[in-house]
Write a structure and sequence with these properties.
Blueprint (H helix, E strand, L loop, with lengths): L23 E8 L2 E6 L4 E5 L6 E2 L10 E6 L2 E6 L6 E3 L2 E3 L1 E4 L4 E4 L2 E8 L21 H13 L6 E4 L6 H10 L8 E5 L8 H6 L16 H4 L4 E5 L9 H8 L19 E6 L3 H6 L5 H7 L2 E4 L10 H8 L1
Length: about 325
Amino acid sequence: MSNAPPDRQSQSTIEIACFDRTHAWCIDIQDDAGGRRVPLGEGRVVVGTSSRADIVIEDPTVSSFHCALIVVSGGIGIEDLESKNGTYVGGARVRDARAGLGTCIVMGHSSIVVGALFPTDPEEEEDIAPLPGIAGGSTAMRRVAAAVRRFAQHALPVLVTGESGTGKELVSRALHLEGPRREMPFVAINVAALPRELVESELFGHERGAFTGAVTRRVGAFTEAEGGTLFLDEIGDLPIDAQPKLLRALDGHEVRRVGTTGAGKKPSARIVAATNVGLQERVAEDGFRLDLFHRLNVFVVAIPPLRARRGDIGPIREGDS
């Protein structure tokens, strides 16, 4: 563990740094204090448990000055500061590494996921066109439209949050239609509606005879959505024993159909997940894996309830008539 503080940047200088017009870097931290999002500036930021660290981690297994992060061209540079328990990226202990969007950095019992902030210029909000098929032109929904169009250009997972009835599937379809995968399949699966024993089969497929009732071969939703978008609704209800395989798929590993013993196939579908429950609360209750939450929580589209955008009620009613 380092005994002396490294060169540090004042906490007051950790601000949103828009090094281009579309996004700035941020990190999502999960430690003993819970989860929080911190924007990163252009300077060197020291992470550790010391009160003198720029970003303080609540975790006794993390060193006083554990690692440093710095925004570099196209990503985040990571420097381990001779920490006691090490800094890990992709399961490997690193001294110096580079992280991009979605990279998970593990230190002790805590983790940091690299993300991006996409600020909207208030002067441009009136010029943002509503999403196709979604009624309502309120400021809140224009911000949602702006986020969807930005996120649609990436292949990383998107988490769509909002109460029941706010239009999470419509927004997820818009993410598909606004991006380069629009000509490829959009496959929707309601996780909550799947029988627990068939979740893995529905997602990854099965071979004939793999289990009682498997009278034919099934390719599974990942294969059906190949090259397109796989929408997983009510992701918070995914059984805990099925979550590791979804995590492997998100990490780009091969996935195999139930009953297959040979080599699997790397999935190419972009994942969009939706939830009307707080996944962080599910994590705290041991009902949802922390590492899977981090992989899904890279880009988040939060849909406000209708009571928070009453100006949209009229257009929505007209659309339903």
